[in-house]
Amino acid sequence: AQTVTQSQPEMSVQEAETVTLSCTYDTSESDYYLFWYKQPPSRQMILVIRQEAYKQQNATENRFSVNFQKAAKSFSLKISDSQLGDAAMYFCAYRSAFVETSGSRLTFGEGTQLTVNP
Amino acid sequence: GAGVSQTPSNKVTEKGKYVELRCDPISGHTALYWYRQSLGQGPEFLIYFQGTGAADDSGLPNDRFFAVRPEGSVSTLKIQRTERGDSAVYLCASSLNGGALHEQYFGPGTRLTVT
């Protein structure tokens, strides 16, 4: 079974600064997808960024980028120019590419609560 | 267009009672997922529907939990003989189909409190 670990329960950053959230995962599969989701107090999970394991290039979405290290099974999220609206719980998640055998579920980490200070 | 909706938003029930939680997926999405999120934890998978059938129910914790999707659209998660440990936020998500490439869109969840 796959596991996802987020070792930082809480992080804080000053507005306009950069912060990096850490995530490690464990899997025996060769092909999979990794995600970062944001969950504000409204509870609705919002997809921030996605990385396909077969792609060497790190994904980028505006101020959000990832550092994907496949051999180390590490997948960190960097938020640049942090804004007050970035404050939320962030979850790292794993999804197998082999839905026929491993199912279509997302496996989530424990989350990191990000505070943005003005 | 409309996103995933869940009703009720909050539900308080007494231990031992039966509850039903409803999920309305995005129109045209054939795949539907239920997750449970306990306080301070990440969501945990419960069940996945492809169309009307449960393609994967391996995450249901015990036989008190059951879910249906009779017409391939709305789904209902049913919990019998509720226990205090069932208190959590129950999240529903839908996607175009069950393929790994397709994004799962989440609803706002139902917060269940068992007293």
In short:
Chain A has 118 residues and is mostly beta strands. Chain A has a single domain, classed as Sandwich (Immunoglobulin-like), CATH 2.60.40.
Layout of SSEs?
The complex is a heterodimer of chains A (118) and B (115).
Chain A: E1 3-5, E2 10-14, E3 19-21, E4 24-26, E5 32-39, E6 46-52, E7 60-61, E8 64-69, E9 74-79, E10 88-96, H1 99-102, E11 107-108, E12 112-117
Parallel strand pairs in A: 2-12
Antiparallel strand pairs in A: 1-4, 3-9, 5-6, 5-10, 7-8, 8-9, 10-11, 10-12
Chain B: E1 5-7, E2 10-13, E3 19-24, E4 31-37, E5 44-50, E6 53-56, E7 65-68, E8 75-79, E9 88-95, E10 105-106, E11 110-114
Parallel strand pairs in B: 2-11
Antiparallel strand pairs in B: 1-3, 3-8, 4-5, 4-9, 5-6, 7-8, 9-10, 9-11
CATH superfamily of chain A: Immunoglobulins
N-to-C CA distance of chain B: 37 Å
Tally of helical runs of chain A: 1
Helix/sheet category of chain B: mainly beta
Approximately how much helix is present in the residues of chain B? under 10%
User: Can you tell me the CATH architecture of chain A?
Assistant: Sandwich
Polypeptide structure, described:
The complex is a heterodimer of chains A (118) and B (115). Chain A is mainly beta. Chain A has 1 helix and 12 strands; from the N terminus they run ββββββββββαββ. In chain A, strands 2, 5, 6, 10, 11 and 12 form a 6-stranded mixed beta sheet that branches. A 4-stranded antiparallel beta sheet of chain A has the order 3-9-8-7, with no helix packed on it. Chain A is globular. With 115 residues, chain B is an all-beta fold. Chain B has a domain of 80 residues: Immunoglobulin-like (Sandwich), CATH 2.60.40. Chain B is built from no helices and 11 strands. In chain B, strand 5 and strand 6 form a beta hairpin. The chains are: A mainly beta (118), B mainly beta (115). At the A-B interface, strand 6, strand 10 and strand 11 of A face strand 4, strand 5 and strand 9 of B.
